[in-house]
Design goal:
Elements lengths: L1 E3 L5 E3 L19 H37 L2 H4 L10 H9 L8 E5 L5 H19 L6 E5 H10 L4 H12 L2 E5 L8 H16 L3 E6 L3 H4 L5 H14 E4 L1
Parallel strand pairs: 3-6, 3-7, 4-5, 5-6
Antiparallel strand pairs: 1-2
Helix pairs in contact: 1-4, 3-4, 5-6, 5-7, 6-7, 7-9
Bound molecules: zinc ion.
Amino acid sequence: MNTTCACGQSYEAPEKKPPDFLSFLDRPECCPACTVRQDAEDDEADRRMEAEQREKQAARNEAAVDRIIPPRLRLTDPADARFNSVLWDQVTAWQPTAEKPWLGLVGETGESKTRCAYLRLRQFAREAALAERPFHGAMISGMEFARAVVEQYREEGSGKVLREARTAGILVFDELGKVKATAGVMDELFALIDHRHAHNLVTIWTGNAGPQEFCTAWPEEYAGPGCGRILEASVVVG
Ligand SMILES: [Zn+2]
């Protein structure tokens, strides 16, 4: 049947199907050229909507990272002159690999290491959302870790904090060298290092010194194996 499209083009329309309960979804019929154009427009609209969804998820992931870091660090602006841009360039250039899934930031006391670690975690959160991968990040400091170990049987939340740190897909462990090397704390710390090392879990740690130095304060049975695992898994910058 010869029909005229809304665009003015006349074309041979296919025979109409009898209407059914889904007919309200049918687009008005049009010529082949208009059909191609409309299909392309629909695809483009779908792509735009998917990109918007990913962008929304990225913002949610970033907000989730912001909630787990100390408020003082949320104010980080990489353009801030106090920010260590040399270190930041090294940190952003780093990509975890199966062989070296850890990044160590070693240097003097100051907030740049922690800030860089936190901002990298935030980037990972965003990248995961844009690639439609799940994101599970955690952040803990040496002091918080030691406190959580001591309180794990008294405070319900502390056991959860320790489990999160051990199993998170990406962990920032700030001031790893400052964990107080008491027996109970060291058992737990070594278990974390061993688990994350064995499972190639991405880990960013900071310290005023490298593990060759801070592990010497650890009990003998953990000093060698702990230092060995950290060095084996880590790219160290700073
Ligand atoms: Zn047309």
